[in-house]
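Worked example

This section walks through a single chain of length 71. The input is the sequence exactly as stored; nothing has been trimmed or padded.
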Amino acid sequence: MKNVIIVDDEEPARSLVKEYLEDYENLVLLDECNNGVDAVKSINNFKPDLVFLDIQMPGLTGFEVIQKLHQ
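Given that input, the structure is written out below as tokens.
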């Protein structure tokens, strides 16, 4: 099983990714985030195997989220 987090400021985009994930029984959705600040917290907390990360978001962009993650 692979753990997944979806990060996108647009709800329809998150819903679409969730819909695609339903076809993959080996992927487990751990969390959804609608902004970069929450994404950093969630990714550091859950340490997922896979993150669907939007690049253009208000506040922190996807690239800024990556820079702020704990190594």
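What to look for: The longest helix spans residues 11-21.
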